[in-house]
């Protein structure tokens, strides 16, 4: 049934293959997907991904914030051809969706970030690789093949280590640097603390560091001989809580990649970021994993968008589960959204194929949401497409 | 106990027959009715009817919206004689309630739309037949006998097919055309996708098409020989997402029936509909089945009512479960309401008799609500009868 | 431990008797009390009392409304001596609490209204006897002994029957007439309809009618011989939905008792009641039993209070469960509150003693609430004692 | 792993000790901690601590109030060195957290307040000892060693007894007096009443009284011989509901310790307290244990802070469970917060070590919250750090 019609191609494929006995491998409902992942993972790994800071109020608030907005669909517009492609900071993507940086994916799947990379590449969705990945940025780049990629940086105090990581990212074809601002110190995460679960302490999630010449040069012994020492060094150099705005200039000079700041929630910080010449902002509260009680990321988005020049792309992270969520964030001014936990659950449940299936589903649903609300291009989607609930 | 008194006739009948051992066959509570239907139906069929788009947030929002309004009853008015009869677009009805178009009812009951038609006819409630019914509009018209009926149109791109369907509807005594605007493409429905459940793919719900000369003429082989080919053609011609307002003029010319547009949610679209000379508007989000995240239909109603001339009837669909819901929509300006899932559950649980019983209950409750709030005629029910909750 | 101190007398009694092995017989928590009653009663009787109209949204709204108000306690006022006594329409009472009229209590307890009367008399709380009681007003008056009582009237269309009932109430020492305005027709009550449960159809709840000379004179045969005929007549004469404001003058003339109108929710109706010279108003939605979707009674209270002269007492009914509820209604302007379902559950669980225990608990808690919020007399409790929640 | 880095010291300790098989003994989640305590305690003792007044609406409201505020973290500020130390009414403390006065802890743990004192001393957190403690203030002072302490006073009507208690508190090194204003009479507590559970009636929680010369002198017989008589006297002298503002002058003269009034909820009472020269105010509704229906303590905080001179410290009590709660109260103007039920659960589950562990966890989380929201000192935390939720 290849012709265009009332069923989009991806839907057609699902219904037709299902009729032939090949039902979707992945739960389409996020909560069910999470439950399925929970059944697969050990308690520590599940809690590490699922959990948030403190009493997890902010994690819940991230989700609740979406329910305060509603889309008002428009009728009888020609929506036969949609184009959701966009370009952010020089990176082209098939839809305004990227995979959010998530560290240490080896706890979820043996292929870890490589499986995610292959799944992303199958759909062409850009991957933002975490500094704290289980596989090195070079390995992941190879798995991504031509698929666009960004590198997320936990910004070390040591400028040499920073420069080394960024130089490698450039060489490996990463198209932008996402600098995380909200993890100078690890948040208080009761699920992990209760089980004393922190994979980094056994050397997991340090691939980019263990493979870095500057990092290795500072060790007393190579990690192969003294992993404990390497871990200690990692915890020490990972970040520098004394970092302030004035250090951005040096970071700027240490790479020619576009720089996006991730973790901005206050419009004044957004303005300051713009003044410092960054190339993009990512509104995020780290999925509720750092500060319990923090504002829902979506609630912070509009003021941040309003605070910066329209030319500065503002992206959104923290709470995206469905196409409706993505549409809402886009309508509130986000240029693209980052998807986090859902793809990790897909990785746990279905590996590389699971990640690809999840992305195909999300993009198909987003395409339908755009079309059925009367739009064909992202530029048309603005705040007038929304109304407050109730 | 036939005399008028503190018990309305229908209540009297229930209490007296119950005392004689004939308890109501149908659950009076909607949620219990749905559970009972779920127990009767196979998982795919139940999910198809019960489910909504995406995470079903809009489906829930449709219900929540009613709880934000409250009726303020008035006392000591003579309410001994109520008259809930009304006329919409030339169709007279015993109360401002119609059966919403629901496709492919063969998945719910072997008699499908015929059982519904007979149940509706027993009470005189107009039925809006779906284009995608399991029985042809001619068969259903026969079952409806003299009961008023409207024909819902999934508007094909092909003007010939459109004209053929409308001509048949006219001939079969349908009194108006309800043009659905929100299904150029099928919404993303996880419950169906998960089970790859889409009855149309096996030829169900195509009765009006398979019996249509224009549709049949375009097939390479008659459906009796090549149903797969017929299904493919159906999916292709079902709708045309490039349809825009300017095509309304042609539609207007292809039938002398009143035309109502179903799926309007934005006041600007309502204004535009009025400018294009349609005969009625149905505020609806398709029961939350098309766009997850869309505004609750009830929240969209007041602005649509305000946007069009008072002479243009605005009807309401999406979320009606009880008489209180119907009263609320009427008070907010709806001329009539469309009832959807409840009658499908009644069909599943009780067939023709179940549909009739559900309608008798709803009309009796609505009559009491009108009376006990101090009204006797629909014209008296306006926004001043309501207050915001809390 | 008889001296006044940090423990009020009633608390002391509970703690000391409990220490001696006599724990409170009645659950102190309302929900637990209801569950206990449910376990004791047959399904029909429980549903009749517990249920409301339609989907029971208004019944829930009645409770939710209280949570939108919060008391702001004041400190360091001399609260050593409280006096909660009050007088409403010439009736003195130990606290601003009355027992709401509840019909046909024989379904709950064999002693029915007699047990309630004795329980009320033990504490001195006035009882408002329902027209539709299972025991005649004369029997109940005897059981009440000197305890104050009011008579609730379902206002018949027949002036003779009305006059007869009121004359008997006067003779039996009832101090006021509470005229119910919201039951010209019985509400749509799914729990009862589902079970076809209506005790009146078997002659229960008709004691005042079966013992009335005017009622009996209109029967073809005495009820002892033809109960079915008596029931039919009862349903016919019970109320007259054509009753309007102008009939109040005649009612006024037919009794010298104070007249209170029960069921007022709109300030315009309150004004009209005042203009017609009634002696009191009871804001009520019949506990959510008549119109599903109706405004929460508490939400209607302030505007009604504001609409009438301060000299006209406004009472409150529908939703009172706890002392905090009573205090809130008083602070919003109610002169007294009527307690409904809780005492029926107490009757079911503990009979006469249960009713007395419930009332002692409620009055003791109310006394503490008044004291601990810095008040000693009802006149001091006004809206400034409250704040909106959140 | 002793060096400063991305893991705070306390987190490092938990993760490293856990990796060595010594997992945290105490649940980090409050609700789980409460459940664990419930499993350990007898029903009466658990209910006494967990329960609140009436239907416990205010207890719930205390918690809900926190969810209406959200913190807006700021980025790229140097947060490498935080200092949460503060001084309130002359008492220095490592963080703006005190242990709230909780009476009769012998029902929870055999070591009662002594275990709490030792746990508090291990962390240096000030303890506010209840008048109604199970161990005398002198014993507790000894257990506290050098750890700062305040004495909570249930203010007797008898000036001699008051003076005696305060003189002992001064001698035992208590640094301030917290005068409770909201328990002239014990609140209506259904959980306790249902079980007739009141440990004071068997002489528990009277250590400070039984050891007091003035109290003893008034007894007919020493408590060792006639405990019932002592209990009766205790209930009589415990408080005086006729106490008004003018008695504050005498109290002021009877001690040279700073005086804080606990239980203020209305800004006018706060103003009056300031006018009377008190040294501090504690906004509190006694954890929802006195007046069901009372305003959530957090909702009362801002207006109280605004009502008094900035020089007058306002503390906060009632509802604090997490670091986010503490931060929110501080940002709304509280100079410090009092922690109640959580430490009692820690006492029940882990004794002295449990209390210390709970406090270490809370202080570590608070330190992270301060740092990760861009602050280093308490003075920097103001209302601009918050936004309303939604």
Question: Would you mind describing this structure in some detail?
Answer:
The structure is a homotetramer of 390-residue chains. By secondary structure, the first copy, chain A, is an alpha/beta fold. Helix content of chain A is 43%, strand content 12%. Chain A is built from 16 helices and twelve strands. In chain A, strands 4-11-10-9-8-7-6-5 form an eight-stranded parallel beta sheet. A two-stranded antiparallel sheet of chain A has the order 1-12. Chain A has a two-stranded antiparallel sheet with strand order 2-3. In chain A, α7 (159-171) links the parallel β6 and β7 (177-180). In chain A, α5 runs parallel beside α6. The model of chain A has no long low-confidence stretch (mean pLDDT 97). Chains in contact: A-B, A-D, B-C, C-D. The interface between A and B is large, with 52 and 58 residues.
Strand order of the largest sheet of chain A: 4-11-10-9-8-7-6-5
Mean pLDDT of chain A: 97
Spatial gap, N to C terminus of chain A: 41 Å
The low-confidence runs of chain A, each spanning 5 or more residues with pLDDT under 50, are none
């Amino acid at each position: 049934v290849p012709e265009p019609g009332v069923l989009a191609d991806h839907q057609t494929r699902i219904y037709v293959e299902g009729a032939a006995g090949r039902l979707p491998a992945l739960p389409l409902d996020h909560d069910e997907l999470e439950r399925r992942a929970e059944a697969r993972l050990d308690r520590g790994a599940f809690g590490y991904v699922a959990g948030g800071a403190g009493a997890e109020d902010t994690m819940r608030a991230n989700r609740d914030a979406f329910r305060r907005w509603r889309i008002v669909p428009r009728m009888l517009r020609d929506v036969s051809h949609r184009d959701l492609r966009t370009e952010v900071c020089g990176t082209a993507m098939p839809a305004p969706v990227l995979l959010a940086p998530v560290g240490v994916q080896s706890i979820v799947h043996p292929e870890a970030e490589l499986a995610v990379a292959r799944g992303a590449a199958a759909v062409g969705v850009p991957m933002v690789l975490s500094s704290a990945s289980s596989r090195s940025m070079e390995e992941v780049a190879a798995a991504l093949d031509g698929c666009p990629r960004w590198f997320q940086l936990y910004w070390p105090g040591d400028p040499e280590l920073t420069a080394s990581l960024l130089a490698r990212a450039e060489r490996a074809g990463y198209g932008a640097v996402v600098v995380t601002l909200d993890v100078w110190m690890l948040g208080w995460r009761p699920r992990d603390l209760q089980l004393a679960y922190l994979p980094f302490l056994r050397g997991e999630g340090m691939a980019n560091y263990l493979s870095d010449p500057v990092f290795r040069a500072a060790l007393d012994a190579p990690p192969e001989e003294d992993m404990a020492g390497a871990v200690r060094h990692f915890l020490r150099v990972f970040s520098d809580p004394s970092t302030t705005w004035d250090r951005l200039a040096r970071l700027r000079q240490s790479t020619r990649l576009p720089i996006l700041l991730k973790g901005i929630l206050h419009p004044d910080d957004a303005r300051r970021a713009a003044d410092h010449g960054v190339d993009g902002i990512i509104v995020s509260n780290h999925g509720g994993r750092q500060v319990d009680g923090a504002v829902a990321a979506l609630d912070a988005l509009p003021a941040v968008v309003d605070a910066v020049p329209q030319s500065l792309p503002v992206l959104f992270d923290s709470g995206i589960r469905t196409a409706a969520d993505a549409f809402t964030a886009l309508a509130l001014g986000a240029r693209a959204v980052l998807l986090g936990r859902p793809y990790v659950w897909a990785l746990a449940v279905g590996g590389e194929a699971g990640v690809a299936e999840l992305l195909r589903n999300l993009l198909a649903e987003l395409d339908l949401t755009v079309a059925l609300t009367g739009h064909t291009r992202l530029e048309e989607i603005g705040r007038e497409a929304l109304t407050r609930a109730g």
